[in-house]
């Protein structure tokens, strides 16, 4: 432990950046423990690990997890959520951050041991602080500690493969199709499987930083909520929309789009994690699709600098989502069409948002979300 403390002091004296991890969670304690063990195996330990727990067992979880941090020098904070909303939980966690960089994670995001070292190196090399945030690289294999904790049998590997997108044969077919431009166009523009197609940009006149020829970076418009590292002062200024409830589709796209007002958002290919994608405590397919459309309407109404233009863009977006989700339901043999129904339910709700002054729209939309979320889940 003495050697670890000496190494930490050496890093701090070198002017290196500190980092904190923020994790919203709900009823996924088993995988959360694996997440924390991966965090504590980092080659550069965090300053803080902050968890906001929306479960009824938050106090018991804190007591069970506290011993993991004993003697590490890492500050551990776990507190009950003020609301069952991943966006609100993230904001609650951000209020405690005192490090230079904040890593926003899902509770089922499992970091490789050098992940923090890699993303910190990019921020530390950015002396002009032009980089606002970094998207981490999601890979299909487990980090070593997670593999040891979750097991490494063929059955486990098969289960992980299913979580990450189907069988090897299916992946091979998709890889074959990716060679064809027509398929890539269909997947991106019709099925709308690209992240950027799930969001309507609402900055038309606001200046946004751009890459310079000297930048050795891959610029992205959005950062994924399962793993994004952001300069703390930017994340605390551009918080997640607090009027979203439950699991909040597109919350990360909205927040990271606003991070892009303050600097470049880029991809960090060497900072690896595995998004394990545990399904517990998620909302239904229909609910997620529906909120994924109407949330975008709220983002536009809240932030747009050209409302008429962006509402017209939203109308096109909603129509394309309806076509794309109908096709995805059909191709997946979901003949009750839950995703298409989700879009259909979202369209009148979205225009209800636009018709109201913003404070009224925010209150009204929370009531609408509650009504949708209280509907009985599909069997």
Automatic annotation (TrEMBL):
Pfam families: Glycos_transf_2 (PF00535). InterPro entries: Glyco_trans_2-like (IPR001173), Nucleotide-diphossugar_trans (IPR029044). The keyword Transferase applies. One of its GO terms (molecular function) is glycosyltransferase activity. Keywords: Glycosyltransferase, Transferase. Residues 20-131 form the Glycosyltransferase 2-like domain. SUPFAM superfamilies: Nucleotide-diphospho-sugar transferases. It is an enzyme of class 2 (transferase). Its EC number is 2.4.-.-. It comes from the Bacteria. PANTHER family: GALACTOFURANOSYLTRANSFERASE GLFT2 (PTHR43179:SF12), RHAMNOSYLTRANSFERASE WBBL (PTHR43179). Belongs to the glycosyltransferase 2 family. This is Glycosyltransferase family 2 protein. It comes from Paracoccus fontiphilus. The lineage of its organism: Bacteria, Pseudomonadati, Pseudomonadota, Alphaproteobacteria, Rhodobacterales.
